[in-house]
Amino acid sequence: MQIYLKRVIILKKTLKSFLAVLLSVLMLFATCSVASASDVQTSESGISAVSSAAAYTAQYKGGLVGFLNKIVNGICNAVFSVLGFILPGTSRVIDRKDYVSENFYGGTEEFLDAPAENARWNLGYGSESIIPDNFGERSYHMAGYDLNKNAVEALDDLKVRAVAISDGTDRGITILANIDCIGIANSDVKRIRAALADYAQEKNIVSINISSSHTHSGIDSQGIWAEQPKTAFNNLFSALSFGLKAPINGVDEEFMQTIITRTESAVKEAVESMTAGSLTYAAKDGSTYIYDRSEPRVIMKDIVRFVFTPDDANVRPTMIANFGCHPEVVGYTSDKISADFVPYMEEVINAHGYNFLFIQSAIGNSTENRGDCVDGLDIDRHETVIRFGNEVAYFLLGMTETEEYCKENIVDWDRENSTIEALGDNASWYTAWYENWEPAEETEVAPLLNVRLQEFIVKVENGIYKGMGKLSLANNIMLKDGLDIYTVTEIGYMELGTDIMVMLSPGETYPELVCGGADMDEFVYAPLRETYADKTVLDFDLMNDAIGYIIPDNQYTYCTIMKKDNGKITFDNAWGMTSMGEHTASRLIGNFNSIVDSVK
């Protein structure tokens, strides 16, 4: 079956071994990029295109297309289940009964219902480059697209950015950090926490949360894109020989050590720079910048910002941005390291006097939707990335301002300071993103911070992930119990003020789990914004782990065939291949709801 994707990853040669072919193909599925896209308009709910359960059923579940989906996925399930069953496990897969939790931080022991007397927000900021010192002298594997792609040049910096935040009480400090990488496994998050353990105890840090920006052009931080099928063969031999040859780790240890030490440094800088101030929240529909690659076209339409303003006017304020969008504007053809649009947001935010932190929202299949951001200009792919990142930054800066303010203070500044020479003074090609602009409301967030995390075990149902886990091809913690394989992950709940609640999710969460959408009436739980309708519900994604797509159980398939409006039957997506399995979403949402219930 020919797969039509916006960015196609092609297996260019036939490997000699059947197992090598199989594993490599599965890896390529894990890296495949976006589906064929066209501009869409979103509704108030963040849902577009297929907006009804009936239409969704007609495209995916009814008649011939529904029959084909059942057949194709039945075959996939059988083949992948056999694969997951027959592959042996390495010594890194431990018995479930022997697992001992270490370096887990549960959050604030006491939950407050209202701010403490005379409470004040306290926040500090820190950042570090995570590009190894010897980058350029030796190559590093890129992550996100092709396997075994080496890079010795960089288009921009890769960073870790961190904030340390508290509500001024003695209940402890919470860390929120984001790393410019495609993902970081819970086992490596715990290594960062271990490096900070003594410092955390000294400073009363009660929650350390590490997320990834999910850039598809960074250095491989998961080991999935490096040295395959070499790692697979080595670890297969290790398993069959009962450890005669040690299993190897696909993650570059030198890079991981760089991440650990630089994150430790950024966190300490954030804590040491904490100062009192106020925190505000604003959100504005930014759906013109975000596109969902597959039906039913659900996105987290709001671009959200928090702004911390220190009481001391000499201290720099900090802006935290939250929206769901894959950083893959650079494209899979690039052989240069990049953090994609994130640093180009940061350069504008910094230039306007703020520290900057970006945290993914429920990212699902969402990617950028400004086309090539070319404004009709003759610019290359890298300049496209700059243009997209800069413009989203302008959106953030002007979010609560008037159209006149945006035009006079942001657009004029952009024309004078843009690094894209082609922009120049040619106003006829300038994107009028500010036209008909309505300022968003900015509200003050009461100084109240409650955080609770839970470590839990998820059964790996996807035969692909089961086989990868048994062969230790990535750094995720894998447990065995009889014939079953499990992974250890975390889910978190955070309250900012009295009205904002945040899910700290360990994977790429489908937005409909938060905001609802077509076919969600068949899911076991209501969307979070329906369950907690009296609160503003946000999602911080890829937090403390990278377990793949978190897909509503009733939408889960290994690959999906759809019927278009013109009656043509075509391939839509294969996102289920990069998920732990069919019931991952219900287990995650169920645990999240349990945490909320436990602290109420």
What's the story with the biggest beta sheet?
9 strands, mixed
Strand content: 15-25%
> Mean pLDDT, nearest integer?
87
**Poorly predicted spans:** 1-50
Beginning-to-end CA distance, first to last residue: 51 Å
Radius of gyration over all CA atoms, rounded:
23 Å
Label the structural class. alpha+beta
> DSSP helix count?
13
Could you characterize what this model shows?
The protein is an alpha+beta fold. 28% of the residues lie in helices and 22% in strands. The protein has 13 helices and 23 strands. It has helices spanning 18-31, 53-60, 63-86, 186-203, 230-240, 253-272, 342-351, 381-398, 403-417, 463-470, 512-515, 528-531, 584-599, and strands spanning 94-95, 121-129, 140-141, 150-151, 159-166, 173-179, 205-212, 275-285, 290-292, 302-310, 318-323, 355-360, 366-368, 443-445, 449-459, 478-481, 484-496, 500-504, 508-509, 536-540, 549-550, 560-563, 569-573. Strand 11 (318-323), helix 7 and strand 12 (355-360) form a beta-alpha-beta unit.
